[in-house]
Design the sequence.
């Protein structure tokens, strides 16, 4: 096999070495030469060389020049062996820098190690017989280098040094080039002119038809690949050449060892190649990761061995790979191991709650508390949803009413913002960005009540494949056209990323059957209720009703509290604790609760045995905020209607905006009644406002009560849900006074304006620390 070439481009930082190497590599590949790019003293393939280089570039580890010289040459010794192996296989190795950089920077640039001969001896020991076949030095004025260094967003340890340092480094390169007979190319010219000069300089080394070209069609790249992408390309070429590739080997005792190719693969695929704890990087597709993790249950090896042995060879064939794994392990198991971010734009506030229906996903949506919804789009429309199935007659009235409500909202939200700022006690000199944000939120909190449920928002969702499929089927079974259309679009877009995971989502015998079951069952129950129950909107005696709770005596939780610390059955614990006196029980209860120093200190899971069932009435805006809590059961809500009325916020009354506020609700009620009379009962919900009261129910356990009650009564929260949750806490305290007392961070009366301002100031402080 013909020997390849080891060619180096040298020169100061910012001279254009990397750009020119990439251009040169492309020209050589087009000409039919096998080429690999290297960066010395880190070959990007040798793990030891890479680790040393990372250490030298990390500002957390300051070091003197002698240490730098020794470390760079240690890395150099390692990486040159990788270059040697590739060169001996007939590859043209193009290298960014070599030992000349050590001399130019550490000796000429820094000047604090005056012993030239010692540095040269260290370099000679590291390099040994691996001298380049050709070294070309690129040169540019120090002023040009300095400007390029400033323009870089993140550089190396040397990039931020002054221009005098760059002058010394440049002089060092030029002196060494002269002494060693290296060609120098002026690199301030256009990149194409510089590349042409390099090409002409190399003509004698790699002329067409020369020894390297003759070997080009036969060469085998056996040097370890530098990335997952390169592993794939490397593998293709080596397979075409008839070479067998192995990432692991197995001895006679069935013990596995990782090859050099395997080590290179793992270095990019996982965060630790030998530790007991590691994470997957973004170099592998989520499909491959999910499939490999699913294999855990039936193979006893280190998972990295499994990855190399069973999956590395299948890169680029993810869907076939996943189909095989799903067949072997079941789609439900594998679906839980892959996740996807999905965004739904222009979702009405009726749809947002349907999107956030699933418990096993994460959601984020635009907030009506911090964003003004007074802007029109480029077509002159406010941000509200228009149902596609409205008749022309209904649509005209719908558009007219929505525009009128948004006009009033836009007027009121700015008037109220000014009112809040005018009456604030905060000194003028302290009215900063935090003050503006806090007062804006106060105004939005009060005026958001007049925003229609049709108001459009953006929802971000992160879900596992299984949770996403379930959400899609839920939407596609919904009676609301907007929900069904969104479900279909979500399936279409998600299939572009994880098609195999969603293959069954709408198949007639799988997802299709589930969608039909849900839709048909919902409709059947609805028809039964219409026949058997009154359709009038009954008013509740109290907005907050604790319908049921367990246990009746909260001390009955003690067996659950002590269970994991004991060695006896639950039944035995109950009998034993029943024999204790009250003081013993109280002491055990308080010991389990512990000393809570903030609301994030939550007692243990024994409290999940206690449950509270609520029937609630509040405005839709409050429900939107509380519906985001995931650790709850049986959360269901009824169709939206204006017939439960609304409340006027005290701040609106104080600002003299009550008449405009009520006008929005009058228009909403008129539109709602009109749409109902035209047969649009379902779509009439879009005409309701966020301030209209609605009925819903929920069940949650005592541990969730700690979280929900303490979080949602904090002064930074919306006044509406603060009041509701405070009432809920009062009802819970009547049933379970000791647990209620343990919820010591339930807030009853801090000044809302000051705490909101404090929160905004802290946010501004954190942002300033990041800038």
Sequence:
């Amino acid at each position: 096999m013909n020997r390849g070439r080891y060619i180096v481009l040298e020169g100061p930082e910012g001279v254009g070495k990397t750009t020119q190497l990439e251009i040169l590599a492309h020209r050589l590949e087009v000409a039919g030469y096998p080429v690999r790019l290297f960066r010395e003293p880190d070959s990007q393939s040798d793990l030891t060389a890479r680790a040393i280089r990372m250490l030298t570039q990390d500002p957390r580890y300051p070091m003197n020049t002698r240490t730098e010289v020794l470390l760079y040459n240690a890395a150099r010794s390692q990486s040159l062996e990788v270059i040697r192996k590739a060169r001996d296989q007939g590859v043209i190795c193009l290298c960014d820098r070599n030992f000349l950089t050590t001399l130019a920077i550490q000796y000429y640039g820094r000047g604090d190690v005056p012993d030239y001969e010692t540095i040269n001896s260290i370099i000679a020991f590291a390099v040994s017989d691996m001298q380049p076949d050709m070294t070309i030095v690129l040169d540019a004025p120090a002023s040009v280098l300095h400007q390029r260094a400033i323009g870089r967003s993140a550089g190396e340890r040397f990039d931020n040094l002054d221009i005098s340092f760059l002058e010394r480094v440049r002089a060092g390169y030029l002196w060494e080039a002269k002494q060693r007979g290296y060609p120098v190319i002026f690199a301030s010219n256009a990149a194409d002119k510089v590349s042409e000069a390099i090409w002409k300089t190399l003509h004698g080394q790699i002329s067409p038809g020369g020894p390297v070209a003759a070997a080009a069609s036969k060469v085998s790249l056996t040097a370890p690949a530098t990335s997952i992408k390169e592993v794939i390309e490397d593998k293709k070429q080596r397979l075409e050449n008839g070479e067998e590739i192995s990432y692991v080997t197995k001895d006679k005792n069935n013990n596995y060892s990782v090859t050099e190719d395997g080590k290179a693969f793992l270095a990019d695929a996982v965060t630790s190649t030998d530790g007991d704890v590691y994470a997957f990087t973004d170099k592998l597709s989520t499909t491959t990761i999910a499939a490999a993790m699913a294999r855990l249950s039936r193979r006893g090896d280190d998972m990295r061995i499994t990855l190399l042995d069973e999956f590395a060879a299948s890169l680029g064939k993810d869907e076939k790979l996943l189909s095989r794994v799903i067949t072997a392990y079941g789609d439900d198991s594998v679906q839980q191991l892959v996740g996807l971010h999905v965004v739904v734009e222009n979702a009405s506030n009726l749809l947002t709650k349907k999107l956030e229906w699933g418990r096993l996903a994460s959601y984020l949506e635009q907030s009506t508390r911090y964003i003004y919804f007074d802007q029109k789009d480029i077509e002159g429309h406010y941000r509200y949803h228009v149902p596609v199935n409205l008749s022309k007659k209904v649509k005209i009235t719908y558009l007219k009413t929505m525009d009128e409500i948004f006009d009033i909202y836009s007027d009121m939200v700015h008037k109220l913002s000014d009112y809040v700022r005018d009456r604030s006690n905060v000194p003028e000199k302290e009215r900063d960005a935090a003050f503006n944000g806090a007062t804006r939120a106060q105004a939005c909190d009060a005026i958001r009540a007049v925003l229609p449920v049709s108001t459009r928002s953006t929802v971000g969702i992160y879900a596992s494949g299984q949770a996403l499929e379930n959400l899609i089927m839920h939407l596609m079974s919904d009676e609301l056209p907007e929900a069904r259309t969104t479900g279909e679009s979500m399936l279409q877009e998600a299939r572009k990323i994880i098609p195999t995971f969603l293959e069954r989502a709408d198949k007639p015998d799988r997802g299709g059957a589930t969608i039909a079951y849900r839709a048909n069952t919902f409709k059947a129950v609805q028809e039964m209720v219409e026949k058997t129950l009154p359709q009038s909107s009954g008013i509740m005696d109290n907005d907050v009703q604790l319908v049921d709770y367990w246990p009746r005596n909260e001390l009955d939780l003690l067996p659950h509290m002590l269970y994991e610390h004991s060695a006896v059955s639950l039944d035995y614990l109950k009998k034993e604790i029943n024999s204790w006196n009250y003081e013993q029980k109280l002491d055990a209860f308080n010991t389990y609760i512990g000393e809570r120093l903030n609301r994030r200190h939550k007692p243990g899971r024994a409290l999940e045995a206690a449950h509270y069932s609520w029937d609630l009435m509040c405005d839709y805006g409050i429900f939107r905020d509380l519906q985001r809590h995931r650790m709850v059961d049986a959360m269901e809500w009824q169709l939206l209607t204006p017939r439960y009325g609304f409340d006027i916020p005290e701040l609106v009354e104080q600002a003299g905006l009550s008449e405009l506020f009520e006008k929005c609700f009058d228009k909403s009620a008129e539109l709602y009644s009109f749409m109902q009379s035209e047969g649009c009962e379902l779509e009439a919900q879009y005409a309701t406002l966020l301030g209209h009261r609605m009925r819903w129910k929920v069940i949650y356990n005592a541990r969730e009560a700690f979280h929900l009650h303490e979080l949602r009564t904090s002064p930074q929260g919306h006044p509406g849900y603060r009041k509701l949750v405070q009432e809920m806490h009062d009802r819970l305290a009547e049933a379970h006074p000791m647990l209620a007392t343990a919820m010591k961070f339930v807030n009853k009366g801090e000044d809302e304006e000051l705490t909101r301002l404090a929160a905004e100031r802290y946010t501004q402080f954190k942002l300033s620390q990041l800038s």
